[in-house]
Structures are given as structure tokens and as C-alpha cells.
């Protein structure tokens, strides 16, 4: 028997994953000259020097070998100390796993907790990886819209209505990407109560926790639903360590134990000297001074961009209280989709923004603007946008 020759074979599941619209726009922009990007969700700051020095010292001290799969014990202890100091939450180091950023943390949660015939509730709009992770885990996806009139907070009543016998997990991400919204304490408590009543896991993705404005506060979900929460967090945004790929997950003991089994086969362990640098990031006051300086700079940029947008035709910004994004509404009279509007701005203003539909259907009519860009670049981008939109 002869088989038909093929160049290569691909698993069907890979076709479930959609290519990010964010990347497509970036690739178009790369082929153009004199473009200012307000699209990427990455701090433009360098990693604090004290953290870099800690990594160099760790290399010199021989931290070039494997670590325990879950992470270096002292690093996990430092993470537990951090939650005790900042939020008065008791966490056992044994319930922590060090991951390659929050990306891996969310992937492990989906793969460990969900399977075919399970449902996961994901807000709309939401960060792009959640839906793709759900597809790979073969779970059903239920989207709940985040509404402007509720300041893009999850509505507990709508959450209850969406729950079925198949619902196993809820994903939340606050401070929110893409809207910049922050959850109020009463909403956090309501979601925690619902999770306990309906026996749901909450995957709470919290990498923007330190970038808050106008007196807003962050309430970690693990404080209110400790037995139901899988908390994913990252050093990428807080300490401007995106390229280091350092994050962690906190979860109930049995969940962590099973996540570690999968993690061991995915990457084995996070780079040893990077974990040592993570200890310094959490324990050295100089790293936290750098974080506060970054927050203050973001706050200045936020005020600047809002000032421009509030005077700009055909666009209305939502006033965010967290993260480093502004979620802005497109004038419906333009009769332009989010994607068309983003492409129009690229072509006519040489400015990259992200169409709201990159984050879900409910993002139609909106764009995401990142202000993780130098002030001079932001001013130039805002002026370009204003000039272009004034001609519509």
C-alpha cells in the first residue's frame, strides 16, 4: 500500500488558533516610514538597574543550572511575603509556581482545569490569549460584554445568568486590558461569592496591579475567594521586565500540584538566574522606587493623552483608572468599523492604534491607545491624529 506524499503534517487543533490582528497591523506599519506606534502593550522603560545587577551577580555565582520545577524556594517565599506585605493575604510558598510570564500561567490554568464539554466565561472585550487558550483546551466559550455604562466592570447579575451546569471557570483581568478599567471592591466580593456558590474557578490575571490613578485601588481576587482563585501575575509590566519572561501563579494546593506536572513538560523550569533577580525585584526598595517613578510617568502621559483626546473630533475616550491604555469610542456617524478606522489612522496619520475587535466582538466601535511611549512621541501622535481627523 502506498501513501500520498505530503511535505508535512499538521495537527487540526493548530487551525483553531487565530493570528492576532494586533500583529497584522504591526507588520503593515513596519513597511511604512515615519510611523508612531501607540499599539504595543509594553513598558518603554528599562529594567531597574538593581534587578539587572542581581541577575549578573547570580550568573557569576553559578546560577546556571536547573531549578525545582515549581521554582527556587526562596523566590516562592519572596512572592508569598509580597502578598502578605502588600495585601495582608497569607499564601503558602507551596501553592506558588514560577512561570514563563503570565502567558504560561494562563495556559497552564486552561490546560489543567478545562476539557471538552466544559465552559469558560470570558469577558468581551478581553486580552487576546484567553479565547485561544480556551480553544486549545477544547472548552466552550461564553462571552459576557463589558459595558461602558458600568465603567467596563463585570456585571455580577449577567455573570449569574451566563452560568450553566457546564461552566467551570471565569476569566477576569483587572486592571483591565484593553479598557483600563478597575474593579470596585464590592464587585470583587460579589464575583467571589458567585464563584463559591456555583463552585467555579476564577482565573484572575493581574499584571497591571501597580499602575493605578485617581486614588483607585487593586483588590486581588485571591483575598476574597482563596479556594476558587488561580491568580496569574507577571514581572513584565511592574518591573519593565517583558523580555525576561518571569511570572507566577498562586492556586489551591491540588491545582498547583497538577499545574506543576504540566509545567515540567512544557519548559521544565524558568531560568535560574532570572528567578534570583526576581527575589531582588520583590525585596529591594530601589526596585519599588523605580516602579513608583514609572507609575508617576504613566500618570503624566495619561493626563496628556486624555487632554488631547477630549478636544479631538470623532473620538471619545473612556477615562481609565488603571493599566496604561485608553479605550476610545469612534464616532458612529463616521460609519467606520474599528479595523477600518485603525487602518485609516495608519494611512492618514501614520499612527498605530489597535482596533477594538482584536479583543472581541464587543470591541467594535472602539480602539485601544497605549501611552507606554515617550511624551514627545505621544504629543506628535496626538497632533497627527487631530489633524487627520479634522479633515473627515
UniProtKB/TrEMBL annotation:
Mind listing the UniProt keywords for this protein, alphabetically? Answer: Aminotransferase, Pyridoxal phosphate, Transferase
Q: Which SUPFAM superfamilies match?
A: PLP-dependent transferases
- The EC number(s) given in the record are 2.6.1.-
Its needed co-factors are: pyridoxal 5'-phosphate
Q: Which Pfam families match?
A: Aminotran_1_2
Q: State the Gene Ontology BP annotations.
A: amino acid metabolic process
What GO molecular function annotations does the UniProt record carry, in alphabetical order?
Answer: pyridoxal phosphate binding; transaminase activity
Supply the InterPro entries for this chain: Aminotransferase_I/II_large, AspAT/PAT-like, NHTrfase_class1_PyrdxlP-BS, PyrdxlP-dep_Trfase, PyrdxlP-dep_Trfase_major, PyrdxlP-dep_Trfase_small
Aminotransferase class I/classII large domain segment(s): 34-384
| Family affiliation | Belongs to the class-I pyridoxal-phosphate-dependent aminotransferase family.
Q: Which PANTHER family match?
A: ASPARTATE AMINOTRANSFERASE, ASPARTATE AMINOTRANSFERASE-RELATED
Summary of subunit composition and partner proteins? Homodimer.
Q: What is this protein identified as?
A: Aminotransferase
Q: Which organism is it from?
A: Thermococcus cleftensis (strain DSM 27260 / KACC 17922 / CL1)
Amino acid at each position: 500500500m502506498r501513501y500520498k506524499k505530503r511535505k508535512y503534517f499538521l495537527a487540526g487543533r493548530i487551525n483553531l488558533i487565530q493570528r492576532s490582528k494586533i500583529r497584522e497591523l504591526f507588520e503593515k506599519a513596519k513597511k511604512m516610514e515615519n510611523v508612531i506606534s501607540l499599539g504595543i502593550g509594553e513598558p518603554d522603560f528599562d529594567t531597574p538597574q538593581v534587578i539587572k545587577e542581581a541577575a549578573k551577580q547570580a550568573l557569576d555565582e553559578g546560577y546556571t543550572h536547573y531549578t525545582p520545577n515549581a521554582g527556587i524556594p526562596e523566590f516562592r517565599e519572596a512572592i508569598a511575603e509580597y502578598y502578605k506585605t502588600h495585601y495582608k493575604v497569607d499564601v503558602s510558598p507551596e501553592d506558588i509556581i514560577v512561570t514563563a510570564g503570565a502567558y504560561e500561567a494562563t495556559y497552564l490554568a486552561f490546560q489543567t482545569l478545562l476539557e471538552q464539554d466544559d465552559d469558560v466565561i470570558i469577558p468581551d472585550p478581553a486580552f487576546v490569549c484567553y479565547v485561544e487558550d480556551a480553544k486549545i483546551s477544547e472548552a466552550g466559550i461564553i462571552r459576557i460584554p463589558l459595558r461602558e455604562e458600568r465603567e467596563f466592570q463585570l456585571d455580577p447579575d449577567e455573570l449569574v445568568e451566563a452560568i450553566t451546569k457546564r461552566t467551570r471557570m471565569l476569566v477576569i483581568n483587572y486592571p483591565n486590558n484593553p479598557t483600563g478599567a478597575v474593579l470596585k471592591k464590592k464587585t470583587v466580593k460579589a464575583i467571589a461569592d458567585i464563584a463559591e456558590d456555583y463552585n467555579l474557578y476564577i482565573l484572575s490575571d493581574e499584571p497591571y496591579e501597580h499602575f493605578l490613578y485617581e486614588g483607585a485601588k487593586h483588590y486581588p481576587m485571591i483575598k476574597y475567594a482563596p479556594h476558587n482563585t488561580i491568580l496569574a501575575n507577571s514581572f513584565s509590566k511592574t518591573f519593565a521586565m517583558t523580555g525576561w519572561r518571569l511570572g507566577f501563579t498562586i492556586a489551591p494546593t491540588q491545582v498547583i500540584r497538577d499545574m506543576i506536572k504540566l509545567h515540567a513538560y512544557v519548559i521544565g523550569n524558568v531560568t535560574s538566574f532570572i528567578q534570583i533577580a526576581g527575589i531582588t525585584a520583590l525585596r529591594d526598595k530601589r526596585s519599588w522606587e523605580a516602579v513608583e517613578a514609572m507609575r508617576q510617568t504613566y500618570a503624566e502621559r495619561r493626563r496628556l493623552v486624555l487632554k488631547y483626546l477630549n478636544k479631538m473630533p470623532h473620538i471619545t475616550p473612556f477615562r481609565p483608572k488603571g493599566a496604561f491604555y485608553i479605550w476610545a469610542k469612534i464616532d458612529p456617524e463616521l460609519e467606520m468599523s474599528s479595523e477600518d478606522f485603525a487602518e485609516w489612522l495608519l494611512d492618514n496619520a501614520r499612527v498605530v492604534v489597535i482596533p477594538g475587535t482584536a479583543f472581541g466582538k464587543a470591541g467594535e466601535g472602539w480602539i485601544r491607545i497605549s501611552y507606554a511611549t515617550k511624551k514627545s512621541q505621544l504629543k506628535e501622535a496626538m497632533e497627527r491624529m487631530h489633524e487627520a481627523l479634522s479633515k473627515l
